[in-house]
Write the structure tokens for this entry.
Amino acid sequence: MQEIFDKANSVLEEIKSSAPVNAEEMEQFRIKFLGTKSVLKDLFGAMAQLPVERKKEYGQLMNTLKAAAETKFEELKAGFDTGKSSAKEIPDLTAPGYDIPLGTRHPLSIVKNKIIDIFSRIGFVVAEGPEIEDDWHNFTALNTPQDHPARDMQDTFFLTEDKNYMLRTHTSSVQIRKMESEKPPLRYIFPGRVYRNETISARAHCTFHQVEGLYIDDNVSFADLKQTMLYFAQEMFGRNTEIRFRPSFFPFTEPSAEMDISCFICNQKGCAVCKHSGWVEIGGCGMVDPAVLENCKLDPKKYSGFAFGMGIERITMLKYQINDLRLFFENDIRFLKQFTSAV
Ligand code: PHE
């Protein structure tokens, strides 16, 4: 009979002396002394074995035990909650850290940054212009007056009834802004988003990105343009890349050309990307038309220059062999996380 009392007293001691130091040990304490299968339950059960005259005394002891366990648990819990626990939990400094999933750059940003890097090595500086443009900067100053047929080539999103404001259809508008506001030498590249009212498909979108280049100085020649484009193509697509110029037309350049690069995918043996021609088109270029220089109050007898414009999506699609333009704008993580280059 005495053993039953002894047992209860030793459990009371155990409650008083136990000192859980973390959540796990707290839970063990709770299960042991307060849970549905706690040792106290067994001790209460033992009451039945006691003679009537000692039941009261035992009952009081058990109440003390229960209260002790509850108070201890509440105190410890309050200490943990406020961070004021006296418990000395030693963190495991050897535990590995949590995984922090790193994002990746968008493929268009990777390619844009690479283009900027390549041109900045030969002295081109990045500048930007507004995406909402007026007629002067997007068309008229670029030698494309109101009734010019070339306006139909670019399906414009006009913003006002009078068609004076629009979403820019190309980054060439930034050329005008720079030529108006600064004196040559000008050596710029203008990366940015442009808009055209086109039906969205694997090959066309209503918004895409261009990088425009502009170099204005004394005595800039077509040879400078070709050399600059060759340098770019070889840096971007590999040292063996060749370039080809085909005569073309833009209102703001004269002469104008479309630039092709030798197909780096099949090495000109013929493949689906180059449509078995061995060449792929990457952009337009030409010598800045004297009329454009005049529109910007630059003397065409003193200055000359070249300009070029390339589609960033197009270059990215070639470089990574992506066959659907829409992927760039859908933000599908499975697509995006394949591009890990930090360039
Ligand atoms: N702006 C032209 C386009 O969007 C590209 C271009 C830029 C052509 C500069 C010549 C010179 O198609």
Observations:
- The mean pLDDT is 90.
- Residues 170, 172, 212, 250, 253, 284-286, 307-309 surround phenylalanine (CB under 6 Å).
- The chain has two domains: 2-82, 107-342.
- The beta strands are 125-126, 132-134, 165-167, 186-195, 207-217, 243-250, 253-262, 279-288, 304-311.
